[in-house]
From TrEMBL:
Protein name: Probable inosine/xanthosine triphosphatase
SUPFAM superfamilies: ITPase-like
Subunit structure and binding partners: Homodimer.
Catalytic activity: ITP + H2O = IDP + phosphate + H(+); XTP + H2O = XDP + phosphate + H(+)
Family: Belongs to the YjjX NTPase family.
Length: 175
């Protein structure tokens, strides 16, 4: 079975590989990575934008990879009351038109990082600047740096992909 991932980010690719391997451990998977457009701003500022970006990436990856499944992952911020939270969306689509989706955990974004984001930086770049790091988004990401590595981007995205795969695992409930 072929899976086209709508990203060339190794952390996101690891999350998808782990999720599919966990759900269907006996299946032989072929994964391909594709740089595809999300159709949303580089830093989504709502669940609606992030979900739309993940969906667009999944559909674009499915077509680019001539695959059985297309996967899109898109991080974004969402405001609840006076706080902004970071989370990521995963969307999985197949050739029959089925779609599954899931999210990562949500974590509040501290004011110094929000200030940099309001000045135009994406979350990853803002974290790089605050923590004097380079390319955190391709490693532990925001979740990892904020929890000293207890959580990391790959595992939280893995869980989001597994949640999205529920539509395919229990498809009889969705047909």
């Amino acid at each position: 079975m072929r899976v086209a991932i709508g990203s060339k980010n190794p952390t996101k690719a690891d999350a998808v590989r782990s999720a599919f391997g966990s759900v269907w451990p006996d299946e032989q998977w072929q994964f391909s990575l594709h740089s595809v457009p999300s159709g949303v701003p580089d830093q989504p500022r709502s669940d609606t934008e992030a979900l739309c970006g993940a969906r667009n990436r999944a559909r674009n990856a499915l077509n680019a990879g001539d695959a059985d499944f297309g996967i899109g992952l898109e991080g974004g911020l969402h405001q609840v009351a006076d706080r902004w939270y970071d989370s990521g969306w995963a969307v999985i689509v197949d050739r029959e038109g089925r779609e599954g989706s899931g999210t990562t955990i949500r974590m509040p974004v501290p004011p110094p990082i929000l200030t940099l984001m309001d000045a135009g930086l994406e979350l990853g770049a803002a974290c790089d600047e605050i923590f004097a790091e380079r390319n955190l988004k391709q490693r532990g990401g925001f979740f990892g740096v904020m929890t000293d590595g207890v959580l990391d981007r790959a595992n939280t995205y893995r869980d989001a992909v597994v949640a999205g795969l529920a539509v395919f695992i229990r498809k009889e409930l969705w047909d």
